[in-house]
Amino acid sequence: MRRYDREQIPSSAPSAHHDPGIERNLAPQPKKKRKKEKKEKKTLPETTIGDSAIQDMCCPREI
Questions:
Q1: What is the C-alpha separation between 39 and 54, in angstroms, rounded?
Q2: Residue 42 and which of 10, 20, 33, 57 are 20 to 30 A apart at CA?
Q3: How do residues 18-63 score in pLDDT, each as one tens digit?
Q4: How remote is the C-alpha of 44 from its chain's centroid?
Q5: Using the 8-state DSSP alphabet, how is residue 36 labeled?
Q6: Sign for the pseudo-dihedral over CA of 15, 21, 27, 32
Q7: Residue 38 and residue 28: Cα distance in Å, rounded?
């Protein structure tokens, strides 16, 4: 019984070690993306046009 428990613990341990590693790898990426997003915000007026069209579709004032 104990042997099986010891085998299960190591098998779950590597995954636990990989998870924090993945989180650490993802952490720096969003920071880099944020810098790119600031540049993309300048091109956001195009999306606002789509949003206004969506608002017209949701709430048609003409009717």
A1: 24
A2: 57
A3: 555 555 556 666 665 565 655 555 555 555 555 566 666 666 565 5
A4: 19
A5: H
A6: negative
A7: 16
Residue 36: CA count within 13 A, CB half-sphere: 5
How big is the chain, counted in residues? 63
Sign of torsion over alpha carbons 39, 41, 46, 47: positive
Amino acid identity of residue 45, one-letter, is P
* CA-CA-CA-CA torsion sign (44, 49, 54, 60): positive
- Encoding tokens for residue 43? 């091109």
